[in-house]
Amino acid sequence: MDLNIEDITKTVIKFCSQGADARMKFVLERLVTHIHDFARETRLTTDEWRAGLDWLEACGRICTENRKELITVSDIFGLSTLVDEINYPKPPGATQGSILGPFHTTEAEEKANGDSISHDPNGEPLFVLCTVKDTKGNPIPGAQVHVWEADSNGEYDIEKLSHSGPDGRGIFHSDDQGEFYFDAITPVPYPILCDGPVGVFFKLSGRHEYRPAHVHFMFEKEGFDNLIT
């Protein structure tokens, strides 16, 4: 079969449209179309194409159970935020959602209100008091809240070679007044891990690698939309 720059896209779409799943057909059709259009628009060179493949391969190689390089790639390209906005649009008056990020784990332990989530002796103590409310201002009792933050060096527990259990994270539940509270440390700004492909991207794009100081919260309760912020 002779293919040229004009008819290759239609041919590949035809090859990828033989499955029974209509949604998969549609997604693959649009994916192939946009990738091919990108190559045509930029007049992508063979060397650039190869460098891109090598970069993606490096992303896969560096990934581990706790090192989610491809999630970080999705985050820095804004794709994670866009998908979240498409799938979980917030009504007026609701807290804006954020992305889960690569450092959430299922290791967090259940905590009672007033407990501490951090064992970092060098962190500046911080008392956190929060109230969970609906868009009308009514308190929401019984909401499950996952909390996680980095230590005073800007590192999360799972990044450390000495990691042996959860630290800087916990699971709380709002009380009858919709409140939950705990001891933590004041968060600090920290750089995204730059010893791998993401670091290469930052250098090439001239983008800095720092994130502002923050604490992660994830709220869940039956009958309510989940919120990550």
Automatic annotation (TrEMBL):
Cofactors: Fe(3+)
One GO term of the biological process aspect: catechol-containing compound metabolic process
Metal-binding listed as a keyword: yes
GO terms of molecular function: catechol 1,2-dioxygenase activity; ferric iron binding
Annotated protein name in UniProt: Catechol 1,2-dioxygenase
Classification via SUPFAM superfamilies: Aromatic compound dioxygenase
A Pfam family recorded for this sequence: Dioxygenase_N
Keywords of the record: Dioxygenase, Iron, Metal-binding, Oxidoreductase
Domain Intradiol ring-cleavage dioxygenases: 105-229
UniProt family annotation: Belongs to the intradiol ring-cleavage dioxygenase family.
Highest classification ranks of the organism: Eukaryota, Fungi, Dikarya, Ascomycota, Pezizomycotina
Keyword field contains Iron: yes
Domain of life: Eukaryota
Record domain Catechol dioxygenase N-terminal: where: 21-94
InterPro entries tied to this protein: Catechol_dOase_N, Intradiol_dOase_C, Intradiol_dOase_core, Intradiol_RC_Dioxygenase
